[in-house]
Amino acid sequence: MSQNAEKYSALIKAKAQKFGFQSCGISKAGFLEEEAKPFENWLKQNYHGEMSYMENYFDKRLDPTLLVEGSKSVISLSYNYFPAEEISTIDSFKISKYAYGNDYHEIIKEILREMVAELREEIGDFDCRVFTDSAPILERSWARKSGLGWIGKNANLITKQQGSFYFLAEIICDLDLKEDAPTTDHCGTCTKCIDACPTDAIVSDRIIDGSKCISYATIELKNEIPDTFKNKMEDWMFGCDICQDVCPWNRFATPTLEEKFRPNAFLKTFKREDWKEITQELFSEIFRKSPVKRTRFSGLKRNMEFLQK
């Protein structure tokens, strides 16, 4: 470890706090040996459904030094998106909380770029790339390794202090930094997430059959939704929060301070009938800056029509 490792690590964590990240941890870049076989088995079981991109860049997913040449450290960060107000679901369809506001990819990447620019001013130039759910990286594995939290039975990263309603991000860099240690698991004997999943997508402790997940069906799936989902989607038209909503640790979630993640005004007023009559033009207006645009107008209409079958 270099002489500056501790100093730079402390500086990075201070900057992360300044830029609004709720936690920051560091791990040594290298091959994720512990995750290799389980990830390979997950793919072999076809738990990724039609998400064929999960099969791509297998080696890079497990080793960030192949993704960012010369990298030595993975800086893992979390950014809170828990809403101050929950949108009423009475006589309306449901949207996952992470999609209430603007698209997190753009917002968090911009914050990361500004943070890196400040770090370079103080440390000097260093090579890095920033990511948030946008590259072949096993984000939760790196976050767990760097002590941000543990991977729960619903396969989400969970912390005792904040629960799981946050985005993950990474800075993979060539700085030699001080590693953090993983935290302990605090799921215990609780099975609330497994019991609550209406489609039995949590096939066993920490293993998710993605092809059975409501989020997969409403976002990732491009074809027709299979009849196996009929009467099981509980009015979710984009994403699903069930396994997080029932998690006891999420009683500690606190509202985000990021205004761009605040609920879109339309989402607060629209009822079921309003959604049914939505046009392409209105969809584009409402979701122009939202993650919901990923499912496209045709996808959202498909989801709503399936819910009314």
UniProtKB/TrEMBL annotation:
Single GO MF descriptor: epoxyqueuosine reductase activity
Catalytic activity annotation: epoxyqueuosine(34) in tRNA + AH2 = queuosine(34) in tRNA + A + H2O
Annotated ranges, domain 4Fe-4S ferredoxin-type: 178-207
Coiled-coil residue spans: none
Pathway info: tRNA modification; tRNA-queuosine biosynthesis
InterPro entries, per the entry: 4Fe4S_Fe-S-bd (IPR017896), 4Fe4S_Fe_S_CS (IPR017900), QueG (IPR004453), QueG_DUF1730 (IPR013542)
Binding-site positions, [4Fe-4S] cluster 1: 187, 190, 193, 247
Pfam families recorded: Fer4_16, QueG_DUF1730
Binding site for [4Fe-4S] cluster 2: 197, 213, 240, 243
Alphabetical keyword list: 4Fe-4S, Cobalamin, Cobalt, Cytoplasm, Iron, Iron-sulfur, Metal-binding, Oxidoreductase, Queuosine biosynthesis, tRNA processing
Principal subcellular localization: cytoplasm
EC number: 1.17.99.6
Domain of life assignment: Bacteria
Residues the entry annotates as binding tRNA: 222
Record keyword Translocase present: no
Protein function: Catalyzes the conversion of epoxyqueuosine (oQ) to queuosine (Q), which is a hypermodified base found in the wobble positions of tRNA(Asp), tRNA(Asn), tRNA(His) and tRNA(Tyr).
Family listed: Belongs to the QueG family.
Stated name of the protein: Epoxyqueuosine reductase
UniProt organism field: Chryseobacterium suipulveris
Lineage, highest ranks first: Bacteria, Pseudomonadati, Bacteroidota, Flavobacteriia, Flavobacteriales
Gene behind the chain: queG
